[in-house]
Write a structure and sequence with these properties.
Length: 102
């Protein structure tokens, strides 16, 4: 948990996807998860990470991802390829920047 906490702070991000050795998404940890872990004295990522992660696909339209973020009231979603491998994250800020460029 400490290592993930440092990654969040050092990279100024609010969430980090957790992958297995094959780069398959197994969960996500947010800064709020870390806060709760400290308060509840949790020590392991598997105790705090969200396993049922809302994801997007690499070939879907940005507006589809934007609607998903709005529907689930989340600020980002991991992006997976056709083999379920993590290839990135799309955030609300990414979508706004994309819209401003047009």
């Amino acid at each position: 948990i400490e290592e993930v906490s440092e990654l969040l702070v050092n990279n100024e991000i609010d969430q980090i996807p957790i992958v297995n050795e094959d780069n398959n998404l197994v969960g996500i940890v947010t800064s709020w998860d870390i806060t709760k872990a400290v308060a509840k004295h949790k020590k392991k990522l598997k105790e705090i990470m969200t396993r049922d992660v809302i994801t997007s696909r690499k070939d879907e339209y940005i507006d589809v991802a934007a609607r998903r973020l709005d529907k689930y009231k989340i600020g980002s979603t991991p992006v997976l390829d056709d083999e379920e491998k993590l290839i990135g994250i799309i955030t609300v800020a990414d979508i706004i920047r994309r819209g401003v460029k047009k």
